Amino acid sequence: MKTKIALAIGCMAFGLAATSCSEKEKSEEKELIEVKVNVAEEKAEMKADLRELEAEIDMKIAELEAKREKANAEMKAEIDKMEADLKDEKSDIEKVLADIENASENTWIDVKTSVNKTTRDLEAEWKNFKAEVDETFDGDGK
Hints:
The chain has helices spanning 2-70, 73-102, 108-136. It is mainly alpha-helical.
């Protein structure tokens, strides 16, 4: 009788341990899925912000091209320089977008930090550039 009770207790202990391990595995799996979802959401948000900045740059390039048609030779040279600067910024954005796309869950923290810094720099350059355009065209660069 004591043997049967001991065997039953042993089986219950083993069953609880197996259940505990299974629950722990499920919990870890759930956490991993949440991390993947968070990374995917952060990537999508960052890419959307960069695409928005890229669209603003495209609009400004179109505005500059329209102004170029009416400009004198000196102003055309200035517009050409501005367009080149904008195209460089677009190139930088494409590089950042590629970095985001190629980031894995393992490298995401480092990539995210780098992308945030680069994005802040690009946004600051963009703000300065818009002010420069406005100044160049006496407030008509909107």
